[in-house]
Every structure is written in C-alpha cells, then in structure tokens.
Amino acid sequence: MQILRQAGLDSVPGGGAEILSDRVREVLSPRKIKSSRWLKVMETAHLLGMRTTATMMFGSIESPEDIITHLEAIRDLQDRTGGFTAFIPWSFQPGIRN
Fold first, then answer.
1. How much is the pTM?
2. Contact by Cβ (8 Å): 51, 85
3. C-beta neighbour count of 31 within 10 angstroms
C-alpha cells in the first residue's frame, strides 16, 4: 500500500465490508477476505494518511449481534485513526441484478 501512496493514491473506497462477521461473510461471499484483514487494510491506509469509507450491507442473514459487531469494529477503528470519511449502510436487495 505504501507504493500506491507514493504513486499518488490518497483514498481507498471501503466497499467490500458488507458485514464484518466472518460467519455471515463465509455464507454470502466466501472468497472475500476475513473481517480482520479488511480492518487491517483500512487501518494501514489510515496510518499512511489515506482516507477511506466503510459500507455495511444489512437485511440478509445477519443477526442484530452481527450488525452491532460491525458497527463497533468501524467505530473502534475510527476512534483510533480518524480515517473514515463516510459510512454507507445499504440494504440487501434480493432479486436485483446488474
């Protein structure tokens, strides 16, 4: 990521968070990185001076506890780094295709 920063990248979109519950991620998107890795990527970007965003998809198979875990993880990282510029919650839309 340092190479990207030196090349002029100054922000990173936070899509891919969906829901930061590995239990849910394993069902919905098993090929995506684990929650801890996503958070580490965002933290690294923040520590390099980059700003990022964070998303949260809800309304599928997650529990209220999964949502709380997600929100706490984002809030904790924001408290430590101040690097998020936006939080984008979006609801699951079954049956919609690109």
1. 0.88
2. yes
3. 5
* Alpha carbon distance 18, 70 (integer Å): 9
Cα maximum dimension of the chain? 41
Interatomic CA distance for residues 56 and 70, integer angstroms? 8
> Cα–Cα distance between 16 and 41 in angstroms, integer?
11
Query: Are the C-beta atoms of residues 51 and 13 closer than 8 Å to each other?
Result: no
Burial class (CB in 10 A: 0-12, 13-18, 19+), 30: exposed
pLDDT single digits (tens) 65-84: 999 999 999 999 999 999 99
Q: Is residue 44 within 8 Å of 33, Cβ to Cβ? A: no
| Distance between CA atoms of residues 10 and 1, nearest Å | 11
- List beta partners, residue 56: 89
